[in-house]
Amino acid sequence: MELHRGRLLDHVQLVVSDLDASRRFYGAVLEVLGVPVVDTEQGFFWADELAISEKDSPASAGRLTGPTHVAFQAKDRETVDRFHRAALEVGARDNGAPGERPYHPGYYAAFVLDPDGNNIEAVYHGAAERSAESVVLKFEMPG
Q1: Closest to 80 in 3D by CA, of 99, 65, 106
Q2: pLDDT tens, 42-78?
Q3: What does pTM read for this prediction?
């Protein structure tokens, strides 16, 4: 079996009720996953393909999203465990402790609810070889 990631989604945007609470949550769990968070002054922050904005920001349509399920890739089981601990330490609610799941052999995941009730997962699919660490898009901004 072969799984491909990074071909279907360009980005995911979550519109949240409390940007500061979401920044604390996503900052903590994404640090564990080794994904930097970029803050802006326009009422949102982003990390790779994930954008988080407040309802009144220009990046949203004025409505909250969710509840939504988002799964982050983890490099190993220990990272899934650390993700779960970090999330609980910043006030997330447990929605499934780290462990094997029946989706396919080796699927190891943990689930938490973010401040808006979104189901956030970290998953390790088992031993595999990546063809690339990431896809890099290079473009020039006008002006």
Answers
A1: 99
A2: 889 999 889 999 988 887 878 899 899 999 999 999 9
A3: 0.86
Cα angle 78, 80, 85 (rounded to 5 degrees) comes to 95
**Residue 44 corresponds to which tokens in the numbers above?**
């949102």
For residue 59, which of 75, 70, 43, 72 has the smallest C-alpha distance?
A: 43
**CA atoms within 13 Å, Cβ hemisphere of 87:** 30
User: CB of 44 within 8 A of CB of 52?
Assistant: yes
pLDDT tens for 77-101 read 999 999 999 999 999 999 999 999 9
Cβ pair 98, 108 in contact under 8 A: yes
Question: Per residue, what are the HEC states of 32-91?
Answer: HHCCCCEECCCCEEEECCEEEEECCCCCCCCCCCCCCEEEEECCCHHHHHHHHHHHHHCC
Chain centroid, CA 130 distance in Å: 19
Cβ–Cβ < 8 Å for 36, 73: no
